Amino acid sequence: MSSVIKVASEKVSAVELVAAALEKAKKFAEYNVFTSLNEKAALAKAAEIDKKIARGEKAGRLAGVPYALKDNFSSREGKTTASAKMLENYRAPITATAVKKLEDEGAIMIGRTNLDAFAHGGSTENSYFGATANAHDKTRVAGGSSGGSATAVALDIVPFALGTDTGGSIRQPASFNGVYGMKPTFGAVSRYGVVAMASSTDTIGVLAQTAEDTQMLMGLLAGKDEKDTTTLDDFLAAAKSEKLKIGVISDFMGEGVDDEVAKLTKDYIEKLKKAGHQVSEVKMPILKYALAVYYVVVPAEVASNLSRYDGIRYGFRAKDAKTLGEIYSKSRDEGLMPENKRRILIGNFVLSSGFFDAYYLKAQKVRTLIIKAYNEMFAKYDVLVCPVAPTPAFKIGENTSDALKMYLGDIMTVPPSLAGLPALSVPAGKTASGLPIGVQLIGARRSDAILMGLAAEIEGLK
Amino acid sequence: MTEKELQHLADLSALSLSEAEMAALGGDLERILGYVRQLDELDTTDVEPTFQVYEMENIWRPDEIVAFEADREELLALAPESKDNQIKVPKVL
Which of A192, A278, A446, B72 is close enough to A97 for a disulfide, judged by CB 3.0 to 4.6 Å? Predict the structure, then answer.
């Protein structure tokens, strides 16, 4: 049974559910999952829901279900920090559409989860509030940037959490922590009220304990929003169960991939075959260029999106800044993390006159070639499969001194992002030392329901 | 990348970086941009760039005032300094 539905149907009060979640959150404080807890407001909301239910009123499909919110979603409850000093004391004046949709269904946010500042990173070590630990090994990273959300779900503090995924930020921490992580088709879920990172690839999705929950929650979140004009009409109706043509991306199964990751991925592929799906190997040599494209395009968009942090209208202002120029430059220098600055500098470099054609335009042309390669593949296959990340969770501190090495961990998650494709991280067992790994199911645009349906089918075989 | 070029980039980015930061970030940028240059292996003659995957063109809303969930006081309170209903900044000229 789906854990969210189970929680919602258990004969316990919303107050009991929320109090239990808050207690667990405190018990696991050493993992550094949360940037803040929403204790008072959450308990008050739970009491309201219990009253509604007692009066026989409708309380929503998620009535009393506690959830965790990545701290880059705006909500009027508490601070929205993006795990950055720049927004350490920022109280958002708006509510993100995704948050509003969940609350309209009675879900209760118990706390804000830690992330790499402004979602820049793949380990949650770039947080101003320190790293989040992996749920399965405290000496290892949670992954990122939605590291706090993944650990919160894996530790069973909450049955689900919201995350954002620009180049793997839901899928990779989900893989590292052994939970489901869905990055939908670009435009499936409104991004209104979410701290912008790279507008051409930013997406909103969920981290959950079961495929069934993932499906249900994505269904609630998807749909058009006039506050985000990039949103598409809801297309997430459940897919018919049918035999699928599945291609295994062989370029991501060999060199550079950890042996145990490759083996567990192959085990999952065997399950797909046993379930009657037609599986074959495919080659996509163009994908090895996706990471280079990503680290041009995304920093360019980051540089533009982060130019709003100026120390003037909201956010941090450096104490000793006197002139207007100093307010900008000192506030940004003190308020942003090194990784934020790295990306801003790369972005402004590739956009600057003299380098624009060689870097930015070149990357966007290769992006076209990547999309073309995917289109050709999806003319023949329904789903593509590969690992989520080349390795299981690495040690905290292991990759922090080498920015490029950290980026290389994103090599399998960034290609679908550049093409706006849906991709789902599915738990696929553990290594000999007990570290979870995830398999990535990738589909054509708007095929989200097929991916989640396939994951649910395989989950049911266990 | 020369120190002068990096300083120019930091100025364009409105970042006042310390010397230590400049040294570290300069090295990172060299390595990352070096990695990116593998894109030159691909022939992109006659390939159109893709700037977005939205499947749509500009969408305009009517030019009407819509209700906002926060009021003026709340928004002004977010600014580090404000006075007489306005956000305060140092002298510009």
Answer: A192
